[in-house]
Amino acid sequence: MKIRRADPTVMAAAAAKKDLSPRQQARLAESEAIRKKIIAQLSGPDDVFEIVLEPGEKLATIRQRVQRVAALQGVEVAVRVRGDRLYVGLMTPERRSRRGRRPKAAAPA
């Protein structure tokens, strides 16, 4: 192993940005479409959108993408799977899942 001094400008040089692959570009375009067509238009509990999958798409993947885009926008959404379709709407107390551990009962004071 050899150790020697180097020019400090080497540390300051920015790495060259890579171009996005076609798959990454498609995923970015799809996320932007979800944001514009669904998340931006959700204004109340009566707004529900249906997503019909194309051949080759998976329910779990699209569901995760919808939830990720909504989380980045700061919107809490409910996503329901019915057959081969997804339904997306704003999260309401009625739509919230009741799975998991039950909350403790209020103790008498």
Mean pLDDT: 88
Number of strands: 3
Largest sheet, strands/sense/barrel: 3 strands, antiparallel
Strand arrangement across the biggest beta sheet: 1-3-2
H-E string: HHEHEE
- Label the structural class: alpha+beta
Please give the alpha-carbon distance between the first and last residues: 72 Å
What share of the residues lie within helices? Answer: 25-40%
Content of β-strand: 15-25%
* Low-confidence spans: none
Tell me what you see in this structure.
This protein is an alpha+beta fold. It has a domain at 26-90. The protein contains 3 helices and 3 strands, in the order ααβαββ. A 3-stranded antiparallel sheet has the order 1-3-2, with helices on one face. The radius of gyration is 22 Å and the shape is extended. The chain starts with 8 loop residues before the first helix and ends in a 19-residue tail after the last strand. The mean pLDDT is 88.
